[in-house]
Amino acid sequence: MSQAVDEIKIGGLGASRKRVEDSRFIRGKGNYTDDIVLPGMLHMEILRSPLAHARIKSIDASKAWDIPGVHLVLTGEMMATRNLAWMPTLSYDTQAVLATDKVRFQGQEVACVIADDPYIAKDACEAIVVDYEPLPVIVNPGQAVAAEAPVIRDDKENQPDNVIYNWEVGDRAGTDRAFEQADVVSRLKLHYPRSHPSPIECCGSIADFNRATSKLTVYMTTQAPHIIRAAVAMVAELPEHMIRIISPDIGGGFGNKVPVYPGYVCSILASILLERPVKWIEDKSGNLISTGFARDIYLDGEMALRRDGKILGVRMHCDADHGAFFSDAQPSKFKIGLLHSAFSAYDIPAAHLTARGTYSNKAPGGVAYRCSFRVTEAMFFQERMVQAAADDLGMDQAEFRRMNFVRDDQFPHRTPFGFLLDSGQYGKCLDVGLRAIDYDSFREQQAEARARGRLLGLGISTMTEPLGAGNSREYDILGIKMFDSAELKVHMTGKAICRTGAKTQGQGHETTWAQIVAHELGIPAEDVVVEEGDTDTAPFGMGTYASRSTPVAGAAVAMVSRKIRAKARKLAAHLLEVSEEDIEWELGRFYVRSAPDRGVTIQECAIAAYANMPDGMEPGLEATAYYDPPNLTWPFAVYIVTVEVDPATGVWDVLKMVAVDDCGVRINPMIVEGQIMGGLTEAYAMSNMQFITFDADGNCVGANYMDYLLPTAWETPGFELHSEVVTPCPHHPIGAKGIGECAAVGGPAAFVNAVMDALSGTGVRNIDMPLLPDRVWEAITYRRDVSGAPPVRSDD
Prior knowledge:
By secondary structure, the chain is α+β, with helices and mostly antiparallel strands. The protein starts with 21 loop residues before the first helix and ends in a 14-residue tail after the last helix. Helices cover 28% and strands 25% of the residues. It has 19 helices and 34 strands. A hairpin with a 5-residue loop joins strand 23 and strand 24 (496-500). The longest helix has 28 residues, at 549-576.
């Protein structure tokens, strides 16, 4: 006799189970890279360039070598003798490990020192004398393509200018016809500024080469351990099976910890040369000034419109500033990521996008900062263009969106750029948001306030994000297909251990993966341990970024659980002495179809797998699954913000913020809400305060947290979340679509649109983010658009 288990009680799908990893974090018992101390460990510090573009005439490290406690000084010239001065990037470019010929951005790595402690190493770095010859500086794409522009990558053959690529997608001819038929053409130019992921923990590594075993172990802050292992094997020319990458607890990633950084390579070489462990821990300024940036794209957009509000076509040109090296971490096929996911939620007959990538004298950028490969820019451009178009037509913002949405009965829907959307209820999400914000009432209040000189505004932003990149037909990084994996072992006592190729940095994998196992097998989530981040024990996977966790790794967990259940069914048939065809399943229990009271639990099947298996069956209850997603998943969201702008100061305050997210099935509603709130906080910060840019000399303005403002609980507004709309993904094993990035992707445009709505009637069409008070004041006072594109005056 046995009974089915209650899924919520065992912590399955839908349970707001507390995050198990938080038990150690809130006690200060997390195990981060900097917490690890190995016997005989040395410390490494990096000397960075103060100039953005300069020829290196000479490097004198003699005084550094003379400092007691210094074991090694590495320069680009020394790296070159070992063919390690340059390394490949994830976008098939090359990047300097330590500069040899010249420096190409402020903060570039020039030399490094390995010493007994980090203080000695830092002092020795300051003793190194570098003779620089300054060169002209480029800080935006316009300068990069100017006729007189210096060539930044003169190290490369067949690189006569600063253009990295020209790329296009869509139907050029069809889009041209749409514009010929248009009653109204709406145009908008804007800049999505550079932003920095700013994880609370900076990048770092501990390389430990064991000469006796020829094995290299590296503890490091990486979101993608297996990809790093492959890259290290190529760069260091070590056999991959003799490299072990361990990514312990990570203090935030947000895409910043996907690339291979020079510090990793230098610490590895130093450990090999010195045969001792070498630790490198980046400081905050180093992280802000040199590691992977995001965004920095310029839009020139046009929309062909019928007078009744129907969108006939969209034309977009984007210029992407990639910095000194093309090091984007994105699928190889798409040079500017998934920027062409723009307008996927809208039923548009024709669209065409062109993109140009250029080098500049900035740190290399293009990381997927809490977005799926440039989708944040795509949705921002989309929603700013939609608002501008509605204004040009004199139409209501909400109704303009509604009449152009993809309808529920149009799924599956093929976008004009070729994506296939499988499901959604876009109009319903909009209705929920409008009711929550009390749309009609606010419009009345807005008109009354304007008559009294007060400026109120309402901004709407919608987004549908392509998650789970991606199917092996189209998606790869460095030629490696973007599948993911899970391994599940059920012990004879019914307890289990799950390992995946993903790597959590705060998403809650240790909690939610166990909930998926509970859903599929009926094993209580508290009986499932989740491990990730060790290439010697975890199955090969692509890591965690671009919201791939639930759509790909989570799907692999479901599929491996089903493999386990299939074998357990055979064991149940053996135990119940019936044929397998007579066995039925309910959560946690197999039973005989004709005698439902006769059954065995999944735990009893686990014991049998080791102690009472049928003849011919391999012992044990474990399996591995590799999941190659058939398509991307497409969550949808509506974000609506109301604000009040002070015309005398340009300060704007959020009155109310409503979020309606349809992310399919929610594994853990509490974690989902936390992800949405975190994303909205970042969206608010991008629109309001996070400002990092460059002056004419390439100096990074905002390279510290006095200038690059991160929101605290004091500044962050409240958020009202709605979860009424649930549209399961038809091809995902558990119907989930993913949520981790949606609010950060769709949120910024809602805040900006609200401020622009408050300024309607002034003739102001655009203010570049962040909407700092002085920019808003300038727009109101002089009735003109305000650009935030570099260079800026450093004395402002």
